[in-house]
Amino acid sequence: MHKLSTAVVALALLAGCSSGASDVHPSAGPDAGGWDAPSDVAADRSADAPPEAADARSDAIDASADAATDSLDEGADASTDSLDETADDAAIDDATADATGPVDPAPGIDTPGSYGGEDCPTSPAATFTIAAGAASSYTFTGTVSGQLGDGVFYVHGPNGEEVGGALETSAGGAYQKTLPLFCGVNIVKLRWTNEGCPLVLVYEVNRTTCESADITVTVQWDALGRDWELHLIEPAGHINDNATDCTWTSCIGSSPDWGVVGDASDNPHKDIDNTGAYGPENIWLSGPVAGTYTVMVEHWAAGSPDSSGFVTLNVKGVTTTVAIQKLAPQHVWTAATIAWPSGTVTTTQDIYDCSGNWSSGCKATIP
N vs C: which end of the chain shows fewer Cβ within 10 Å? Predict the structure, then answer.
């Protein structure tokens, strides 16, 4: 398994190669068939989960473990020159580790298809238009050849929403990543490179029968984290209170009743969850009531105190990314608050040591 430095986490937001593992919960390292969740983390987190959350969690892991490779298609147009320019333009210095948001790894290339060249990495992917229906996430899976290390992903929603990060790829070229989708037509880009020649797969993913989210929060982290847990807490709520906190115990397969009692349209949803490394984890909310919402992240006990990562917030069409360095196990990071209805995002680096009040999650009454 590769390990990410803080600077490389920032690179994952942009266009260069970065390091990672898979959203199917890696343990010792990747291979073409997927990974298993670390037993200590998975067992600890499953112990207190309600049946609905535990079932949904098991189903998600089983589903994402089924890899599929697209059929060979050599008819895709190559655009090596424009991609080489993209690689040059997208390169960043390590000093930009506090990058404020994702950057499109192939700007101007939005037509679905495969873009590369004779000396670039290659992929047998053949289908680039996807009808996702009502699903708020989609698992991209396949193989590439000739890449160096991992790739990056980028999702652009119809209202300017953005999220990006590491696309962990095994030594054999296998990848499998569940990504969040915004309501409407999404442009999704997957990018790998070798000594300087990139391959970009561009997908048009149409999510219909949905309501646009007013608030979307996404967390990602490095190989040292085992694992990070995302929380969206309603006004006057507290972490790991299932009535007021949208997290893995309360928000997978069902949702706490927020806003108007009995109205499911204003309830939060956690549609991507992970128990290993890298993430992402994703939560979205439509129709929030007035007040201040809090975005918090736990680092569970199996990880390293040197683990770093970032949270991306999409609120009212504005994308904000806030990075954190060295989040120790059993510590809680308050990443941001969101004032509604103004949509004002206030980012923070506040850390709470919950090691003295930890039992399958932080039991302190915070925030």
Answer: C
CA dist., res. 300 & res. 11, Å (int) = 25
Predicted local confidence at residue 190, as pLDDT: 98
Q: Is the pTM of this model over 0.90?
A: no
With H, G, I as helix, E, B as strand and everything else as coil, classify residue 297: strand
Q: Looking at the DSSP assignment, which residues form a beta bridge with residue 346?
A: 337
Q: Both 188 and 242 in a single domain?
A: no
172 and 216 housed in the same domain = no
Whether residues 256 and 322 share a domain: the answer is yes
Rounded Cα–Cα distance for residues 60 and 41 (Å): 16
CB atoms within 10 A of CB 211: 12
Q: Band of the pLDDT at 254, cuts 50, 70, 90?
A: very high
User: Considering 184, 207, 230, which residue would you say is the last residue of a domain?
Assistant: 207
Decide if 156 contacts 102 (C-beta within 8 A): no
Question: 123 and 246 in one domain?
Answer: no
- Do residues 313 and 356 touch, judged by C-beta distance below 8 A? no
pLDDT tens track for 88-120: 333 322 222 344 579 899 999 999 999 999 999
